[in-house]
Structure formats: C-alpha cells, structure tokens
Amino acid sequence: MKITVVGHTAYDFIFIVGEHAKLDQSSYITKWKKCYGGGAANIAVGIKKLGGRSKLYSVAGRDFKRYENYLKKIGVELSLYRSNKPTARAYIFNAGEKQIMYFYWGASEEMGKMKAIKSDFLHIAPCHPKLALEMAEKAKFFAFEPGQDLKKFDKESLAYVVEKADIIFCNETELKEMEKRVGIRNKEIIVTLGKKGSIICSRRLKIKAIPAKVIDTTGAGDAYKAGFWVAFSKGYDIETCCKFGSVVSSFIVEKIGAQNYPNWKKVEKRFSKHFGKV
User: Fold this and answer.
1) Residue 130 predicted with pLDDT over 90
2) Domain of residue 112, residue span
3) What is the mean pLDDT of residues 175-182?
4) What single-letter DSSP state applies at residue 114?
5) Count of domains for the chain
6) Catalytic site residue from 12, 149, 216, 222
7) What's the pLDDT at 183?
8) Rounded to two decimals, what is the model's pTM?
9) Measured between alpha carbons, how far is 206 from 230 in angstroms, rounded to an integer?
10) Please, where are the H alpha helices in 14-116?
C-alpha cells in the first residue's frame, strides 16, 4: 500500500530559548538548528523510514535540490511542481513545551497552480484549498488534515472535503471551527491533544500520550499521522493505529527536528511497553 501525501515542504529553523520574549523585549537563543520540514514532507518521510511506502506531492522551490536529493536517497517517491521562489520556511521558537511558530510560504504560494493526481490512499496535509478539493475528487480513500490552512477554505470547499473524507485529523480548535462552519456527521474523527494524547471521537475513546523527555515538539502531530498510516497499511484497526501514532510521536519530541524517526522494531518495542503486545 502506497500513501500519497500532498501539502507543504519547508526548511525549519528551530530555536531553543530560555523563555519567549514579550513585546519589545528580547530573549537568548541557547541552541538552534536548520532542519528539513513541512507537514506533508514530514509525514511522507516518516512513512518511508518506518517501513511503509509513500509518495510526496508538493512544491519545490529554487533552493530545493539538497532536500530533493535527501528525499530520493531515503526512497520517498516524488511528484514536484517547480517554482522559482524560495522553498517555504518555518521559524520555530521553543521554550520548554511552549512553542511559537512563524511561517513563510515562499514557493508554497504557487500550490494553487498544481493539478490533482490520482491516488488510492491519500493524506491531505495542510495545503491550498483548491488543490485539496481536486485531490479529494481523485482519491479512492483519503484522510483530511486542515491544520493552519483551515482559514483559507471557503464554506463550500470545506464542506465538500469534509463530507468526502474517510478520516479527519484535527485539534480541538479546528474541530470546533469545522463544526461551526459546515457541521460534521458520521465521520471517523481523530483529535490530537498534544501531551494529553488523542481522541477517536466516533468511539469516545481516549488514546494516552507516551511519556517522553521533550526537547522539541516540532512535527509531533505529523509523526502521529505517519505512525497511523504505517499501522493502517499493516491492517491494524483504527484504535491500534492511533496507539502506534502516539508511540511514534513520542520519539520525535526527544530530538530537535521533525524527521528523526526510529525504525519500526523500536516502535513496536515501545508500543509493547505502554500498550501491551499487539
């Protein structure tokens, strides 16, 4: 089973600070690192590193070559729209478990020009609403994750994608916004709650978060989805897939960067420790 992931690629600039600066004040940076990132890329990389098959459909900026070579080296299948603009960038500031993020779209501004491609299994990560809608039309089975781009959807486009989606991933704020704007009925909705775990709404089932020494929470949600999809491709039920997602995200927060995935054997070992043998 190959999972196509559509959405952003980006360069992440991640900073560790003692505390977040208040308005008109400053704070010291104790450590920083430039990493490969972008929600869709994080998920596609995660699926591949965990032993699954993935295809990334995204925009490649004029400075994307090194990132592209890295993706090819680890075996992520690529379908890229070329842009002369710089690759998108995320500037992320971590103070303990509190995070502030600034996002520069750059090449991602041209995502609306991309044409939809067919897929059997699709994950729609945050992306341009026009592309999300067209990708949904050509997918046999897909999950929708509105993320930070939810506000870019008009009511009609959002209603269509939500109605057609097989699975919806969101946080509490996004769920409330979607319910307010278009309503959601009879859907498999998985709500991520950060360190509080996640909830499978249709079953009113809470999935615990796995304890970890948190260094950087960047990409934890993406890791959850990567773990979910790999477990899904192995034939596990939704509850077990969510548990695997929780386990994978616990690895990601232990290092700086969103793509420090373990192998599947390490995931299974930690799964057994916290949830018992699958």
Assistant:
1) yes
2) 2-275
3) 94
4) P
5) 1
6) 222
7) 86
8) 0.96
9) 20
10) 39-49, 65-74
